[in-house]
Amino acid sequence: MKKIVILGGGGFIGGHLGKRLKNEGHHIRICDIKKHEYFDHSEICDEFIVGDLTDPKVVKLVIEDGVDEVYQLAADMGGALYIFTGEHDADVMHNSAIINLNVSRECVLKKVKKVFYSSSACMYPEHNQLDPNNPNCEESSAYPANPDSEYGWEKLFSERLYLAYNRNYNLNVRIARFHNIFGPQGTWFGGKEKSPAAMCRKVAEEMDGGQIEVWGNGKQTRSFLYIDECVEAVIRLMESDFSEPVNIGSEEMVSINELAQMAIGISQKKLYINNLEGKEFFDKYGFKCPLGVKGRNSHNKLYKEKIGWEVSQPLRVGMEKTYQWISEQVQKKTVEHSV
To answer: pLDDT tens, position by position, for the chain (339 residues)?
Structure first.
């Protein structure tokens, strides 16, 4: 049995990771600024500490001597509405950077055996993602650096931080660049949800014969990885001896319009897509339509070569599970508001 600390375990990926590792018989301690909204704590950990990881005293409390593994997933982040409007840039960079500065140092001081850091595909250069049909997100394309958001710049900085601790202090690190992880028990409303959850929510909320909004022209492309496969990929990476940054994502690329149409098809409703952009979008929301890069897709050759495993589940399978869960949440919320 390993003694494992999951930072950010009150979030979507951290909760699922905690559940998997706890079921495998490990002792799990979670720390997050908030409790998990959808998992009972007994499902995902043995100890749950509510604390702000920007405070070094909290980090010292959580990471004790004798910890085998630390999974660092804590960050100030969200969907396009949170990341790409520019309104939260300072908080995103400050909060996440401080957390990683605290955690990397404490892991060295407490002699943690192995550390996982969750980076993001947002750190890839914007100029390699201008063609929606041919984006380049191969790991070697990271430099010269030019992320399209301050969130991406902070992720790139923190990658280098952990690698520097690896070189200078022998910190045993594993770094994954996540590509749009989705699934049940995650944020599905309020502005921090990712595209799959947003599409499922919009479809679930709309009556048959209505329409849903898709920001931009809907031709921007992405790939999306279901949470169970993400957790499997993270665990296999941690068990490997590969210490360079590597992509964890799906290579099944779709346009945002196709993602929306998939959610509509799963619902069996007859709905129409309203692509909202430009002046029409600004007049309605009061800010420029936040889209991110035009194209992004995971490149998994390096992971296959170094880890010996690959994603197999089609996007639709994960979307069906996600839509079912979000539809249930929408119905519960509707009932609560009607009482």
So the answer is: 999 999 999 999 999 999 999 999 999 999 999 999 999 999 999 999 999 999 999 999 999 999 999 999 999 876 666 666 777 899 999 999 999 999 999 999 999 999 999 999 999 999 999 999 999 999 999 999 999 899 999 999 999 999 999 999 999 999 999 999 999 999 999 888 889 999 999 999 999 999 999 999 999 999 999 999 999 999 999 999 999 999 999 999 999 999 999 999 999 999 999 999 888 888 888 888 888 899 999 999 999 999 999 988 999 999 999 999 999 999 998 877 665
Q: pTM here?
A: 0.94
Catalytic residue, chosen from 82, 151, 165, 323, is 151
In sequence order, which residues have a C-beta less than 8 Å from that of residue 73 and are 6 or more positions away?
6, 7, 8, 9, 11, 13, 14, 17, 118
Query: Which helix H or strand E contains 221, and what residues bound it?
Result: strand 221-223
Q: Does domain 182-223+253-297+313-333 match CATH 3.90.25.10? A: yes
d(CA 22, CA 19): 5
Catalytic residue flag (residue 151)? yes
Token code pair at residue 53: 């990881």
CATH of domain 3-181+227-248: 3.40.50.720
